[in-house]
TrEMBL record:
Region spans: Disordered: 73-97
Transmembrane segments: 20-37, 43-63, 106-124, 130-152
The name this protein goes by in its record: Uncharacterized protein
Keywords: Membrane, Transmembrane, Transmembrane helix
InterPro entries in the cross-refs: DUF3099 (IPR021449), DUF6343 (IPR045924)
Compositionally biased residues, Pro residues: 77-89
Pfam families, sorted: DUF3099, DUF6343
Length: 176
């Protein structure tokens, strides 16, 4: 059968293989329950009996599906069932964040970075060098995170629609 890429959604079990496995499970667990009935504890025998009952129920389900006909059996003549596509979700509208909020986010994260470095090498290093190194590594990761977080929600479309938006002059604002 050709793969379509939607197998998890339209998977069907090969019923003859499932029939053989259920029959094997039923026979082996029944034999184990009978052999262990007088020798082992009741709990082990009940576990094997429960597996036998489960295999017997599966055997009955498989036989019923086989008797229903080829619609329920996979094969080259039966195409896979196409999955039902969920309705698309409408995109969320995100308001642009003003520049003051973005600056506050950036300064908060960068302030945390500076405090981590100062605390790591003045307070924590005499106590634990390993902890100071870890704090330094975290502080080294924070600047790119600060830039990313500060850029979230920015109106960078170039349309100039946000409050306080001004297009920067081509000379960079130097007036040359």
């Amino acid at each position: 059968m050709r793969r379509t890429g939607n197998e998890p959604n339209s998977a069907r079990s090969p019923l003859r293989l499932r029939l053989g496995l259920a029959l094997t499970g039923l026979v082996s667990s029944t034999i184990a329950a009978v052999v262990l009935a007088g020798r082992e504890s009741t709990a082990i025998v009940l576990v094997f009996a429960a597996v036998a009952v489960s295999a017997a129920v599966d055997l009955l389900v498989v036989v019923r599906r086989i008797r229903q006909g080829p619609h329920f059996q996979p094969g080259s003549q039966v195409p896979p069932y196409p999955p039902v596509d969920p309705p698309p979700r409408p995109p969320r509208e995100r308001r642009p964040v003003d520049e003051g909020t973005r600056v506050r986010r950036y300064l908060l994260i960068m302030g945390t970075c500076v405090l981590l470095v100062i605390a790591a090498w003045t307070v924590v290093r005499p106590i634990s060098t390993g902890a100071a190194v870890v704090m330094g590594i975290v502080a080294a990761v924070l600047p790119p995170v600060a830039v990313f977080v500060a850029g979230l929600g920015a109106n960078l479309s170039g349309g100039g629609t946000g409050p306080g938006w001004q297009r920067r002059p081509r000379d960079g604002g130097l007036g040359n």
